Amino acid sequence: MKSLGYYAKRLGHGTAEMFKRLPFAFYILTHPFDGFYELKRDPRNHNLPGAVFLFIVLGITSILKRQLTGYLFTEPFAQLNLNIPYELAVAVLPFILFIIANWCFTSLMDGDGKFRDIFTATAYATLPMSICNLIAIPLSNFLTLSESAMYTFIVSFGFVWCYGMVFLGMMITHQYTVKKAIATAILSIIGMAVIAFIVVLVFFLVQQVFGFVVQLYTEVSFRLNE
Questions:
Q1: Domain for residue 75, yes or no?
Q2: What is the pTM of this model?
C-alpha cells in the first residue's frame, strides 16, 4: 500500500508541472493562431489541471471585481449581498455550457477537436477577461465619474478579447473555415439556451417532486398519529 508521502509527492509534482505549462496561455494571447494550433497538435501542451485553474481564476477575479470595485462603478450595497456559488456560476457556467454545446454540435459536423481540446482552448481563452478584471479593480478606485469611459473600455475590451479568443480557439481546434466557425458558434449558443432550459426544467421538476414527497410524508405521519 502506497504511503501518504507518495501521494503528496505525486500531487506536488503534478502541481509543479501544471504551473510550468501555464505560461503557454500567455503565448496564446500574443500568438493566437500559432498558439491554438500548437495546443491542438502537441499533446505536451495539454494542461487540464491548468485549464481548471484558469476557470477558478476567472471566478475569483469576478468575485474580487464585484467586491473591490470602487463605489462609483458598482451598484449601491452590492458588496453586502455576496453569494459566492452564484457569482462563480455566473462567471464560469456560460463557458461550461458553451463547451458542452460546442462538443455536441462539432461531433456531428466533422470537428477535429475532442472534448478535452475544446475545454482546454476555452479555458485558455478566458485569460484576457481575468487580466482585465484585475486591471479594472484598482482603476475603479482612482478614476472619477467623468473618467468612467476608461473603466468601461477596459471591462468591455476584456469581454471582446475573451470571446474573440474563444471563437479563434474553436475555429482552429476544429480546423473550420470562418463561415463554418460562425455557423457552429451560432448553433452552440442555441444549444447553450436549450441545455440551460432543460437543466432549469429538471431542477423545478425535482423540486416539485421533492415537495410532493415531503407533503405526502407529513400528511401520512399526521394521519397515523391521530
A1: yes
A2: 0.83
Domain count, the chain: 1
Residue 54 burial by CB count (10 A; 0-12/13-18/19+): exposed, middle or buried? buried
Residue 216 covered by a domain: no
Q: Tell me, what amino acid is at 169?
A: G
> Could you tell me the residue range of the domain that residue 76 belongs to?
4-200
Query: What does the pLDDT look like over 97-144, one tens digit per residue?
Result: 999 999 998 888 888 888 988 999 999 999 999 999 999 988 888 887
- Residue 65: inside a domain, yes or no? yes
Is 223 a member of any domain?
no
Q: Which long-range contacts (CB under 8 A, 24 or more apart) does 25-30 make?
A: 25/50, 25/54, 25/124, 25/127, 26/127, 28/124, 28/125, 28/127, 28/165, 29/127, 29/128, 29/165
C-alpha distances (whole Å) from 220 to each of 206, 214, 225 are: 21, 10, 9
